[in-house]
């Protein structure tokens, strides 16, 4: 394990902690949302700040970046849309009566969840509220979206006519310990998923497999069938709140306040690996090319071999909790409550990991070949025995 030395670049333009970091779909830009009430746009090509979005009257809780537009939500109860080229505020979405915690952009919809106990759906272009989702008994912390076309067979889609207008569904997780699934078109609650005994902090959706994963302050992760609402499995080994989730190739990674990340095989519920070394809560994680990157309340980011669990590198330099990480072109971006965005070169780690994977595949290939030769030899011996016995 090596130490990272220092970051390639430290961007210290914000005057307050950075609460979120979003990467555009084309990978050309990054967006940071800060406690200073502003958002900043960064180029991944030159790591320079190319936009400063000002207008919110309180701190920004979350941000989302598309290729041509940026979205921010704030403790000032509003959501704003920004032009990434001019920096102009294109729209202000008003209606929430408390802090807006989270936003999600899907198709032409903008979804939001708030401390006012509601989630809302807005038309991205018309600056208009389309729907309000009311039913949670406490604040809405996390959101997910899918279409019933992704998960339902035709015979299962016999819903009311109003639901057929739009088959989009919104999933909300709340501090009231429940997950709710809503029809977007009507605002009607399709199902309430009961089982958690603590606040639901994170959601991750696997629509092709009809599964939803939820992490909670009750120390568990639960997986649900999003068609029937049935609870499928409970992952129980964490000793602290489950803060973040990542799903890759049927492997679920969970970061916790117990200072560990765990890897689970989704199909069996088996815990495969535990990643230790954090000295505080694991606040964020990201899987990339066989490496698990984590950010922690101990102000460090770390890189682990995802298969072996071996710690490969520690990225030191931040002063406070790392709230979010992104990866692009073998650069690691870390955003912290210390107000800085730091950029780290991870080419060396990625290269070493690729060599290791190549070597492992080669060994597996030789083992497989030996197995095939062994089976061929045993088959021949079997045939000879049968011939000698006159069978």
TrEMBL record:
A Pfam family of this chain: WD40
CDD domains, per the entry: WD40
Keyword set, alphabetical order: Repeat, WD repeat
Repeat as UniProt keyword: yes
PROSITE patterns noted in UniProt: WD_REPEATS_1, WD_REPEATS_2, WD_REPEATS_REGION
Superkingdom field: Eukaryota
Ranges in a coiled coil: none
Swiss-Prot/TrEMBL WD repeat ranges: 11-43, 93-132, 169-192, 193-234, 235-274, 315-347
Gene3D superfamilies: YVTN repeat-like/Quinoprotein amine dehydrogenase (2.130.10.10)
Protein name (database record): WDR86 protein
Organism: Machaerirhynchus nigripectus
Designated gene of the protein: Wdr86
